[in-house]
Amino acid sequence: MIMSSLELEEKILRQIERLQLEYISSIDDGPLENWPQFFTDPCLYLVNSRDNLERKMELGVMRFESVGMLVDRATATQHAAVFAPRRIRHVLGPVMIDEVTAQEIMTRTNVAIYQTSPDGDTMLLMVAQYQDLIAEDEGIYKFKEKRVIYDTLRLPDSVVYPL
Amino acid sequence: MKSDRAKNATLWANASTTRVPFEVYQDGDVYADEMEKIFYGTTWNYVGLESEIPEVGDFRRNFIGEREILMIRKDDGLISVIENRCAHRGAQLCQKLSGNTGNGITCPYHQWSYTLDGDLTGMPFKRGIKGKGGLNQDFDMNQHGLCKLRVESLNGVVFASFQDNVPTLREYLGPEMFKYFTRIFDGRNIRVVGYQRQVIDSNWKLQMENLKDPYHAGILHLFLISFGLFRLDQKSKCLVDDKKGHSVLISERGSEEGQEDIGGVKIAAPDFSLTDHTLIEPRKEFPDDVTLSIQTLFPSIIIQAQCNTLATRHVIPKGPGSHELIWTFFGFEDDDENMKKLRLRQANLMGASGYVTLDDAEALEFSQLGLTGAPKGNAAVLEIGGTGSESNDHLVTESLIRGFYMRYRDIMGYRHLGF
């Protein structure tokens, strides 16, 4: 079946939306062990402020370059870190597709991330934008690069879970 | 005096600093007193790095205590630090975090303008319109400049003081602290790698205490212990200056002798190992064998060198129960590509989400939550390593915290009240 370019774009968009939703669910609903599966290996996962980005500084609050490093983060968060219990919840905006090539798709997605304490107090953890480079890996879309660029320069408290 | 409550004898009933009354972490009068006597008193406060403002007119906004200041590169190449408040009606002059203000500073409200040194140069309608209005002839422009701070820079690191009678920065640091300060800031050009900022809901002093508390580091930080990045049985020292307010703690990775001794610390997952070890493979970069050094300078700056991740951590008080922490990760202009990569990678250990410092921010909030509302007379107990505040060749001690409070009590005037 030959699809029109519009139909093709719609199909890609739906697949990417599904990828993003499954991605945030692995963090919000768990299990966190599933989180690294959404990346190619090697990859780049970078949580960085817009302020740093504008200064061309690629320093991350988190900065991982392989699936192994992502696995380590997930494990360490569960077994080698001390923090007050919390729940986080991502709220995504629509996916914006910037560029589609034969190998990769560049997208941007706005995201607000809320954090709720054991007493049930909810605060805004950050407002950010996913700047993603998505590639097909054995027939499945995965993040080759995922940049979480946050506007919320003064981060409240600490950032425990991946974003 | 504002702090009658602070001067209540119950506040510091014990002559030694083995007890710290919980009131000093939550009392509004104590806090107000700290601003005046410590931050706006005869101390040197960290303002930033010279490399952040390379060009004439470059500025960066920051805080000393609760007062907002600007660090500015002047046309003679030197640096001025002025308060970010117009001498006219008190409006904030610069709103951007950093930028370039050209040859002078102009207030956006009524366009009163100043030199980069903070001298008042002019304002619109100075003589009114057709002789009506404006300023009186006897208005003395020289008396209405911006609040100027005393400035000193040491190997690219800028400090400022609200007081003219502060000793020189070198005297303020003392010889031992100068030695460790210039071990990191050795005169090479500094390259900022990036910033992180976080707001932690604890009193600012708890942040300083945490970096003077090697005892916790070998217990709380399971990540460090698991990978031998820091352990209390490593060859180590903790040093204080003569006035006890500054300190440095250092340790050498791989120097453990004989049987591993983690002192009965409970590790949740003792078999936890890393899949990707590149994160904890540092490169030697200083002449000695020290792999971790944490220097704290009174009142509110921390200089961290853990493996190849170097950073200043600037503690900014935000009321008795909160503070902001600004992390400036840095390297040097002569870093090669590999070192640049290592610094970015190892930054995962530190900052708002760091494998190590995440625990710290959480523990500080646990402290503040725990001590809030404690009955009068309740105090922290600081007797690990005895009661003194001397330098040590081991880390199972709270002597640096006891030292901090000796300096603190001296400056706050609590010491001479007969208790």
In brief, what are we looking at here?
The complex is a heterodimer of chains A (163) and B (419). Chain A contains 3 helices and 7 strands, in the order αβαβαβββββ. Chain A has 163 residues and is of the alpha+beta class.
Descriptive account of the structure:
The complex is a heterodimer of chains A (163) and B (419). The longest helix of chain A has 24 residues, at 5-28. The radius of gyration of chain A is 16 Å and the shape is globular. Chain A has three helices and seven strands; from the N terminus they run αβαβαβββββ. Helices cover 26% and strands 44% of the residues of chain A. Chain A has a single domain, classed as Nuclear Transport Factor 2, Chain: A (Roll). Chain B has two domains: 54-152, Rieske Iron-sulfur Protein (3-layer Sandwich); 174-412, Naphthalene 1,2-dioxygenase Alpha Subunit, Chain A, domain 1. Chain B contains eight helices and 19 strands. In chain B, the strands form five sheets. Chain B has a seven-stranded antiparallel beta sheet with strand order 12-18-17-16-15-14-13, with helices on both faces. Chain B has a four-stranded antiparallel beta sheet with strand order 5-4-3-6, with no helix packed on it. In chain B, strand 4 (67-73) and strand 5 form a beta hairpin. The longest helix of chain B is centred in the middle third of the chain and has 16 residues, at 169-184. Chain B is globular and about 85 Å long. The interface between A and B is large, with 36 and 42 residues. Strand 7 (154-156) of chain A pairs parallel with strand 12 (190-200) of chain B.
